[in-house]
Amino acid sequence: MKNMKFLTATVFVSLLFIGCSDDDAPEAVNEEEVITTLTVTLVPEDGGTAVILQSRDLDGDGSDVPVITTGNLAANVTYSGSIVLLNETEEEPEDITEEVEEKSDEHQFFYTTTGGLNVSTFYDNFDSNGYYLGTEFTLVAGAASSGTLTFTLIHEPTKPNTGLEDAGGGADIIATFDVSVQ
Amino acid sequence: MRNSAFLILLFSSITSLSQNCNNSLSGSVTDIHDGQLLTGVTLIVAETDQAVQTDFDGTYSFSNLCNATYYIQISHPYCLTKGFTVKVFGDTKKSFKLEHHIEELNQITIEGKAYSNKSKTLLESSIDKDKLERFSSGSLGDALKSLSGVSSLNTGNTVVKPMINGLHSSRVVIINNGVRMEDQEWGAEHAPNIDINSVNNLTVLKGAGALQFGGDAVGGVIIAETSKVPVKDSLYGKSLMTVASNGQGTALSSKLTKSYQNGWHTTLQGTLKRFGDFEAPGYVLSNTGIFERSASLKVGFNRFDYGMEAYYSVFKNEIGILRASHLGGAQDQIRAIESTIPLTIKDFTYKINKPKQDVSHHLARLKAFKKFDNFGKLSLQYDFQKNNRLEFDIRRGDDREKPSVDLELDTHTVLLDLESNLTDGMTLKSGIMTRYQKNVANPNTGVRRLIPDYEMYDLGIYFVVDYQWNEQLLLEAGARYDYSYMDVFKFYRTSFWESRNYDQLFPEIVVEEFATQILSNPQLNFNNGSATLGATYTFAEDYNLFFNYSVASRAPNPSELFSEGLHHSASRIEIGDLRFNSEISHKVSLTLQRDDDNFSYSVTPYINTVSDFIIIEPVDVRQTIRGNFQVWEYRQTNAQLLGVDIDASFAFAENCRLNSQFSLVKGYDRTLNQPLISIPPANISNEIVYQNSEFNNIRLSLQSAYNFKQNDYPDTNFEVFTPETQTWQMVDVSSTPDAYHLLNFNSSIDININQNSKLTVGLGITNLLNTSYRNNLNRLRYYADDLGRNFLFNLKINY
Q1: 3-state secondary structure of B335
Q2: What number is the ipTM of this complex?
Q3: Between chains, do A171 and B627 touch, taking CB under 8 Å as contact?
Q4: Is A63's CB within 8 Å of B622's CB?
Q5: Do A59 and B493 touch (CB under 8 A)?
Q6: How many interface pairs between A and B have CB atoms less than 8 angstroms apart?
Q7: A162 touches chain B (CB under 8 A)
Q8: What is the pLDDT of residues B452-488, one digit of tens each?
Q9: Domain definitions of chain B by residue range
């Protein structure tokens, strides 16, 4: 009979649990590590107006597609390039480039061209082990041509590598621009 | 009871005085668990005081018995004494089964199985202790898929999710020690949180017929039970150690039980399992280590007509997820699929890095029962479960140490069950279930919630009646009703909310609007009915025919209702639907079984028709700044699964046995007329076992397992634009891997240390030929081969 008393008590205690739940609404979560914006600034070595390429995707993996701003390059000009990454979902946009450069051994930018676009690229900055990082680079525009120029940021790539094919890791950014050399 | 049996026997022996009394009674005595022959068992015929002992073959013989019914008492040093009534007519053969291992004695020794039937009209497939021990270093899913009709949905080789007749996750109900597991089982990469070493008997019901466990087991029910404790003064235990070459790891498990004649008992059990990176033939599967810790304590008090038990278990598992499987978008996927080896291979390590899962599960149960004369056995159970799931992705900056998923699911359940004998041959099982569940998603992850915060209330009522029509025919019928109420707080992206027209359909559930998100408060009700109808027909001595028809209703799970965003571990965007209703399955299964020691078999064809079946499939490719992602959306359709499971066991020579299995399942989407995704291919396995109880119970087995190629699959391939080549490229995610054949070897031998202790030494080799293969149902099959050869060394001490 003692057992039955104990059981009755247990049932009541469990009912109390059930009765005392709170109905507080949860707080919103803002994605913290989203990169919404990639901006490439290409400054001609002989001076002149910088070319700006930008990909901006304010809703992250939401249904809206990225907004692309592109520009054209001048033939036979060497540009000094730099890349800035931002998270613009926060009120005070966060500069993600700093993070990438701090953990330089875990990141690498890749530059790929297609469609006969006559440009060549060279890494200008390196990680703590002396391997490519690429938030800064040099771009040499050759003869007049057109095609696409893609910037891919790989997180935790295998370093050193011979290119995207054997780099592994995961893409943090893939931004493709239609570019012509005039 | 015994006295009346004596009286009857006395009476019957008087009437038979004039009969011929030169009959013999002979047979064997075996262990109920492993069929091992028992020597030195004393058998006494109560009426004549004749006593004999079984010889080395475990056989006995009485002579000079009349054509009458006798009461025979059987005793053995390691067993509780049992009584049997035997009808002797002419020279009679009768074999007895005893519970040999003290560690496994039933609470009250009742004739028959140690574990009672869960459904009387569905064939139960079960795995006993000895077989479970061979899987000690693996997982529950590894053991389960050794049964016909059971396969697994894997994420690598350590996350093994059981699949019954082609169905998994929320469609498979798992009962652990009488408690329905609430461990976020909706997720395809969420393995059951049960330590295989805490289980003593594992039963699979391939259907929803066991209504006492729930009405939503569209796939089936898995029941894990711990051993029962004898009512006698005793102290015993066992320790198991497995060392494995692949993964260079060890599993240690120990169990100790103290029991008393007055009914009190206590059992303490614990397991520690640690493995480093596993290996495929040719390379290391980087970041696939596992670290599992678990412990349980059971304290109880048992009398014949009443008893109670408290049980608590904690399970903690840290699981590395193959590094090469963590990808960005579709472009990464193309590179990974095109490469024949994983794109990240590092040196072997025990360290578990990200991506990884870190899961803990607490389970507490209080149970009491009392038997009332003329009423039945009433049991009351309260259980509490706390499941915490952390999933770590590869992240950047300040968030790198934070989990991406941090969910806590608390569940309280109260069960009241009654088992009663209505009339002679008719029994009734009935009960009421109430459950409260609360899910809290930690907002500090910095990632939008995968599963929203919710509270859920459930109420269930059921009854199952079975009736023994005559000696041959048993009928079973039952029904169940479940009501669920869900109170959810869900943040939707405003863009999604509007694109889905939810702003038109559900304006009333909006609580608050933020810059890019909307907080909504959906309140959902589900009314589910389920039923079962079945019959078992016994004929020609050892043939059984089982027929069962079951209706199961399953309410959509939180993932199906509320998913809306990138699922990192699957590298795809998943979208649920708030408007889903319950899916309803009708399953008919038929089993022909022959239960014979020399040649036994069972054939089970089945057909499962599910309306409003919820499936997820690719619908689109979404462009984001991180690349292209495939969008997978849940939808409801009409599905049908049909198949057959075949088991056979043939003793072709003394001590030698051939065990064979074959399973086939076909799944179709009847609305779109296409095959269902993730259906296991046909598989066949043949095993030759040599076991000799006279020579230290040596056991040798060689198993051949052949997995066919799955030829029926929906085309879920998609095209993405690859900037590097300026072309559209096909991402082949639907083609299935080739067929493969594996050989596995296992051996063990018992060594008696002293009268109370026994040592069992075992050696096993899985994937003997180091075959490279990939399995259709491994979610990581795109990125790496499955496990290579593995040497396992086992030591077990019973004391």
Answers
A1: helix
A2: 0.76
A3: yes
A4: yes
A5: yes
A6: 174
A7: no
A8: 999 999 999 999 999 999 989 999 999 999 999 999 9
A9: 2-100, 223-798
